[in-house]
Amino acid sequence: MEIRTLANTERATLLDLLDGLDLPDGWRGKNYFRRFMDYDPTYRDENVWVAADGGVLLGSVQILPRRIRVLGHAIPTGGLGALFTLPEHRGKRIASLLVEAAVDAMVERGMEISLLHAQQQAFFADRGWASWTSERSLLRRADPNAAKPKDDLPESQEIEFAPFDRDRDLAAVKAIHSAYSASRSGTVVRDDEAWEASLCLAGNPIEEFVVARQGGATVAYARCTLLGGVLTISELGRIEEGASALASLVADVLCERENDDLAPQGVSSRELRSAVMLPAFDDLQLTVALEHRGLTSHPVTDPSAMLRCLNLEALAGRLDIALFPDEGPAQFLERILPRDALVFWPADRF
Predict the structure, then answer these.
(1) Which residues of 140-171 are buried (b: 16+ CB within 10 A; e: fewer)?
(2) How far apart are CA 35 and CA 145, in angstroms?
(3) Cα–Cα distance, 139 to 222 (Å, whole number)
(4) In degrees rounded to 5, what are phi and psi of residue 158?
(5) Residue 100 and residue 127: Cα distance in Å, rounded?
(6) Taking the C-alpha atoms of 99, 31, 225 and 302 in order, what is their torsion angle to the nearest 10 degrees?
(7) Are the C-beta atoms of residues 47 and 64 closer than 8 Å to each other?
(8) pLDDT, tens only, 200-233
(9) How far, in Å, CA of 252 to CA of 233, rounded?
(10) Burial zone of 128 (CB within 10 Å; 0-12 exposed, 13-18 middle, 19+ buried)
(11) How far is CA 136 from the centre of its chain?
(12) Which of 57, 101, 134, 217 is such that its CA lies 20 to 30 A from the CA of 246?
């Protein structure tokens, strides 16, 4: 058996291997991971490590290169996905060898942090990752039958909700995302290619992308999809004066649709939109505006995020922060990125 990178003639074989993964939300492994091959601009065969015995693939892991914001800096970061070993070959340290090879490659390629979202937390904890538990919020209407509160605005400033229109809204949404996410550590930096990928990959498999316009200008947006069968706002953003507009937009997400594309078969739109999960975020003005609209918030602990510092000296140097005596990688991460400060948009999907 050898541990090596994927040959470009083995993509179909890799997808057949990954079809054995047990994925949520009804996905077949090959269909889920084919999307990343097709749409993720960072996909490279050299980012996929496989365990091979002759021409047979026994296991795999994929590096997902990203840049995440930490204290206003764009930090080269590696995610991990597609970790899988054939059931009959488990117990032979194949997954460990694959992850070790991927970590060595991430360090060699200049990645300073690894961020992943894992179900097998113990496996990664034994290999240097630490759980970065965050608190998300499940929103409900305090009175589902109550009329939506109206904003007391002049007619010229009334808020209009509309489906995302690429030609009309994309430039404004990019600007909102850049400004709103810039001060939030953990969010992924997107260039034009990454935006194209996000528009293709954020849905599960589809998404509801809605914007709020005021005076004809796009002032806020929200992206929704089903994750684990739960209606989830996978990303949101607003201009500086747009807290009220974004809160109204979120409240509108909880209104049933006549033809609801997100509602699974056998589930009514009213049932689906009885609650919505928000990502972890820090926006006091938005929180107050949501309460004003009669939305109750129930905290939900999300333990899935895990972080590992891959190159302590490079990370400290990039941030221009001096290390304390005897400060290790885990302690430094705790200092620069406290657990309650991590903001990750599920729309980034890694």
Answers:
(1) bbeeeeeeeeebeeeeeeebebeebeeeebee
(2) 40
(3) 14
(4) -60, 150
(5) 9
(6) -20
(7) yes
(8) 999 999 999 999 999 999 999 999 999 999 999 9
(9) 12
(10) middle
(11) 13
(12) 134
pLDDT tens across 124-145, in order?
999 999 999 989 999 998 776 6
Beta-bridge partner residues of 135: 301
pTM here is: 0.92
Residue 209 corresponds to which tokens in the numbers above? Answer: 């992308």
Domains of the chain: 2-133+303-348 (3.40.630.30), 136-301 (3.40.630.30)
- Helix 329-336 vs helix 312-319: angle between axes, to the nearest 10 degrees? 30
Q: How many whole angstroms separate alpha carbon 281 and alpha carbon 66?
A: 20
Residue 195's Cβ-side half-sphere holds a number of Cα atoms within 13 Å equal to 13
**pLDDT in the model for residue 120:** 83
Tokens, residue 292: 């004003």
Task: Decide if 191 contacts 42 (C-beta within 8 A).
Answer: no
pLDDT digits (tens, 9 = 90+) for 167-204: 999 999 999 999 999 889 999 999 999 999 999 999 99
The alpha carbons of the chain give a radius of gyration, in whole angstroms, of: 21
Please name the amino acid found at residue 303: P
The dihedrals phi and psi of 334, each to the nearest 5 degrees, come to: -60, -35
- Integer Cα distance of 137 and 54 in angstroms: 49
H helix runs in 109-242, sequence order: 121-125, 166-182, 192-201
Q: What stretches in the chain show pLDDT beneath 70? A: 144-157, 350
